[in-house]
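My current task is to audit a protein record that another person submitted. Alongside the sequence sits a line of tokens, each denoting a local backbone shape. Please read both lines and tell me whether the tokens look consistent with the sequence. Do not assume that whoever made the record got everything right. Thanks in advance; the entry in question is below.
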Amino acid sequence: MSMLHNRSALGGLKHVPFFEVIGREEEGSPRAHVATAGLLLLRLIDHWFLAGMVMVEPESQSIRSVRKAIAALPRECNHRDLLFGIVNTMQTSRIVDIEPVLPRLQAYARLLEYEEWTRPLASDVYHTARCLFLEQTADDEPAAIFERLMRWMQRAREV
């Protein structure tokens, strides 16, 4: 699978809006923590999609780092539960399958739409979800793709 999704003109760096927030905000600030947790999660998803289930095994340094970053968010932060939900969904999957993760990613993107400073992050999450879905369904017949897309949309309304 390619890593063509979410590349910028800056040497192929993905998830640039997250890096921009992290670079702009004061280290340790609530915004920097939110952006860091989101970035680490998206990078985990990218690597899970490419490297497989090894990325989300409990002893994986990647999964521990993501969980630590999410746990550092305040308990009242709405991002915290959504991000943990995505990680838990990935870890309980038997195979790498983006479909169960997509509704939660979409819910995360919707949450990011509410504040002006997070809207570029929302756009990046939507783009990532769309690209991963298209990559995973690239060999499917159009009817199968449509059916999976309808399931994704239905689940997104339920999250």
User: Anything to note?
Assistant: The two ends are 28 Å apart (CA to CA). The helical segments are 16-24, 30-51, 61-71, 78-92, 102-112, 119-136, 142-158. Residues 30-51 form the longest helix (22 residues). The chain has one domain: 16-158.
